[in-house]
Amino acid sequence: MWPTKDKTELLGPLRKIELYEMGWNLKDGLRECLVAAAPYGGPIALLKGHYRRSPSARPQLEIYSSSGLPLASFPWKSGVVKQLGWTVSDDLLCVQEDGTVLVYDLWGGFKRHFSMGNEVSQSQVLETKIFHSPYGTGVAILTGALRFTLATNIDDIKLRRLPEVPGLQEAPSCWAVLTQDRQSKVLVANGSQLFILDNTACTPVTPPGLSPQASSIVHMCVSFSYKYLALLTDSGHVWMGTSNLKEKLSEVDTKIKTPPKQMAWCRRPKSQQPSAVVMWDGLLIVVGECKETIQYHLDDDSVLVPELDGVRIISGTHHELLQEVPGACEEIFKIASMAPGALLLEAHKEYEKESQKADEYLREIKEQSLLSEAVRQCVEAAGHEHEPETQKTLLRAASFGKCFLSNFPPEQFVSMCRDLRVLNAVRDYTVGIPLTHTQFKQMTVQVLIDRLVYRKLYPLAIEVCRYLKTPEYQGVSRVLKHWACYKVQQKEESDEVIAKAVSVKLADAAGISYSEIATKAYESGRTELAIKLLEFEPRSGEQVPLLLKMKKSPLALSKAIESGDTDLVYTVVMYLKNELNRGDFFMMLRNQPVALSLYKQRLEARVALLQSAVDEYYKAKNDFSAKTTEDEMRLLRFQRKLEEEKDEQLVGFSLQDTMTTLLSVGLHKHAEQLYKDFRVPDKRFWWLKLKALAEKEDWEELEKFGKTKKSPIGYLPFVEVCIKHHNKYEAKKYVSKVTPEQKVKAHLAVGDMEGAAEAAIERRNESEISTVLSRCSATTDHLLMERLNRAKATAVKK
User: Fold this and answer.
1) Whether the Cβ atoms of residue 722 and residue 731 lie closer than 8 Å to each other
2) What are phi and psi of 148, to 5 degrees?
3) What is the mean pLDDT of residues 460-479?
4) Which of 471, 505, 674, 723 suits 667 as a labelling partner, its CA being 20 to 30 A distant?
5) 76 near 47, Cβ under 8 Å?
6) Residue 645 binned pLDDT confidence (cut-offs 50, 70, 90)
7) DSSP symbols for 96-155
8) Residue 113: how many other CB atoms lie within 10 Å
9) What is the pLDDT of residue 553?
10) 748 vs 772: CA distance, rounded Å
């Protein structure tokens, strides 16, 4: 008999496990709420009063844990919400009617917002779906214009407007988002017709073996893995098959023809049995491979939450998990089972009673050489059970069986014991993360620790890290860093108290950067606390950047000098040189003799290098007496440049400065030699020489330079630099060399509207045509505008 303790109810091949009695107190249940629950036992968001739409009462947005404990609550003061949903990192998305998406954290704190585009804003949101893909969290929207807009990853918004659905005159009866071949698509039902929309096409598809009685598809759902699809028709038939619509798995008649409230897949990973759940008001029907259905009556308004290995059912009073009975559990607990695991469990029970039957059961298992299999079944079944007592019973039976095996590897048993201890801790009512073992393994330990940290459950997160022996930098140290960053944002305690608490707590933690914690304190407006925390940072290189950011320049320079790192000192000096005026800069250097001495050394090194470069240049000519007047003038200008720099202010050495100086005084050959000797990237050298020649307005030399070899930076920079120096004549020389992608920009730069139009039309690029159109004058470019508009219309069609 199944050890339920009234927590598990068997429904044929399925079982329904009560996870929690909900801690919330909802007067009207979920009746007037817009509900969104995150997968993997995540939080639940309710927008109460959403369907009431009373002008006098604002809706209330509330966030709860899966056990119904409140996390956040605030009145909704923004626009009309069409959909709520959770991201992969447990942030709440609120999609408004105007296409604006607001993002909140788990505690109701506003993080940011983004728009789904002007078209969505103008035609309004009709329906929306929030989905998870390999790229992150996505948003799909059906607009009032009956067009679909898709964003696959909200952290890197790239809006895609999908093709039109032919013959669609009103909102489709149903639609869903599919992820296939790392691409997100939309499956749309228009009556009995099905279409798949991707980036480029709208493709009609036909489910194989769909009941001919159906005249319309009224509901659809995709499995958690996006591999399977279920369709409900107006005749009450549920068709189940693969999401690529190439294979039919089953079709069942529910005998109910009214549209349901919700539909979800209920299939374990690697299961061979198709199974879907359909929910109407007060009724839940499970359909599978056989023609019979399983019915379950619901007392309250409920919401289905698809999971990796089942479906969660949330009502106003209870939270339950509906799933297929795992194979190992079925083998062990089914009536009169003779499976090895079942016999081992009975043997252990008899052993505890000190009965000789234990020996009989063990002998029977051994005779079939199935004792290892029996132990494996008990361990696996323990992982699928939610009741700790049942888990212990199965693990004790497995441990009992291991005693009679000489070479059974202990890793599986030990790992399961650890996993279950962690799972039981996070399933606790006060934590409210009802993960199954299958979900836990898919989620990984790192993600679970992130979830605990996000919920500010730092002690539990640390215990989990220690118990699972997570590497320090991934586990305890990382959790403590998050705790410290949270601690320094608290306003109730003084800087001294917080700094001491952080230093004591983090004293033995490895690899923690105090500068990151100090940065968080500074961002929270606690500059003095940030300075105190930086005292604990052993690496000066980590202290200095934040001190400079906080405008604590003298302290930053002192810390850099204390470190003994000359490069760090010089970095601070150069930063101060750019930030301070000349007087303040030299006053600060005079108060820091070490920094001043180092700065002078760098200056002398640069001057020496530049002078050496000049000497080498003239030595290469092998005849100083034969120098031309032009060479003498170049040398004179070069020496003056050095003198000006030395008198004006101290300057630091850099290869770029050296090359720029050589180029600016016309010593191109030596600049090129430096470029070769120091292996300066081609693009960097070409940029430096291009700018230097343009600033000198040496257009003849610039033209020769452009012809030496193919430019690694292209020829658009040649056009732009000539225009910048008001020489359109020279700029036009380089337009023909520009790549096709940059032709339009080049022609526009020199004011050649005809050329720009030709280039845009030839490339059939709608964006480029629009750019040229925006630069045309209605009075002088009338014929050209007509031609461009015709080309744009053709480009849009294609």
Assistant:
1) yes
2) -100, 135
3) 91
4) 723
5) yes
6) very low
7) ETTSEEEEE-TTS-EEEEEE--HHHHHH-EEEEEEEEETTEEEEEEEETTS-EEEES-TT
8) 13
9) 80
10) 8
| Cα separation, 357 vs 363, whole angstroms | 10
Phi, psi dihedrals of residue 192, rounded to the nearest 5°? -95, -5
Closest to 42 measured CA to CA, from 278, 319, 279, 418 = 319
Per residue in 66-75, pLDDT tens? 999 999 999 9
In which band, very low, low, confident or very high, does the pLDDT at 586 lie, cut at 50, 70 and 90?
low
Q: State the pLDDT at residue 4.
A: 40
230: its two tokens: 């279920």
Residues in the chain, overall count: 798
Chain centroid to Cα 217, Å, comes to 34
Separation of CA 98 from chain center? 24
CA distance 509 to 251: 58
Q: Report in angstroms the alpha-carbon separations of 48 from 263, 312, 315.
A: 23, 21, 14
Report how far apart the first and last C-alpha atoms of the chain are (Å, whole number). Answer: 66
β-sheet bridge partners, residue 318: 21
What is the β-pairing status of strands 81-86 and 70-75?
Answer: unpaired
CA distance linking residue 211 with residue 209, whole number of Å: 6
In 10 A of CB 472, how many CB atoms? 15
Least trusted range by pLDDT, from 230-244, 369-383, 733-747: 733-747
- Helix, strand, or coil here: 252? strand
- CB–CB of 696/666 below 8 Å? yes
Sheet containing 262-265, strands listed edge to edge, beginning at the edge strand earlier in sequence: 262-265, 276-280, 283-287, 293-297
Cβ contacts of 141 within 8 Å, gap of 6 or more: 95, 99, 116, 120, 125, 126, 127, 128, 148, 149, 150
Which tens digit of pLDDT belongs to each residue from 588-636? 877 888 887 887 777 656 655 655 655 554 554 444 444 445 555 554 4
Distance between CA 527 and CA 7 in Å, rounded? 54
> Which residue is it, tokens 């479906």?
311
Rounded to whole angstroms, the Cα distance separating 107 from 686 reads 53
φ, ψ for residue 745 (rounded to 5)?
A: -60, -40
What is the Cα–Cα distance from 300 to 261, expressed in whole angstroms?
Answer: 13
By the 10 Å C-beta count (0-12 exposed, 13-18 middle, 19+ buried), 189 is classed as: buried
CA distance 269 to 540: 51
* 3-class DSSP assignment, residue 754: helix
Residue 290 has pLDDT above 70, yes or no: yes
Contact 90, 106 (CB under 8 A): yes
Name 713's bridge partners. Answer: none
Three-state DSSP at 269 gives coil
The C-alpha angle 84, 87, 90, rounded to 5 degrees, equals 100
Task: Convert 273-283 to b/e letters by CB count within 10 Å (16 or more is b).
Answer: ebbbbbbeeee
